[in-house]
Specification:
It is built from one helix and three strands; from the N terminus they run E-E-E-H. Strands 1-2-3 form a three-stranded antiparallel beta sheet, covered by helices on one side. It is elongated. The N and C termini lie close together (11 Å). The model has no long low-confidence stretch (mean pLDDT 94).
Length: 68
Amino acid sequence: MHRYQITIYWSDEDDVFVADIPELPGCMAHGDSHEEALAQAQAAIGYWLEGAERIDREIPNPTPNSGR
């Protein structure tokens, strides 16, 4: 499990739960339930980190206590 902050909120416009990972620019996910959005966010973080490594992008450290 990744330790980055994940903010989950309901989107009336999209009719889904949206998971935003603010420490990783552009990294977001969604799901029909809170749990699905969280699982998709963890996957998105993994993809973001893999992509960043491939292009030698700086990877930010998680903010302390953001993995709670």
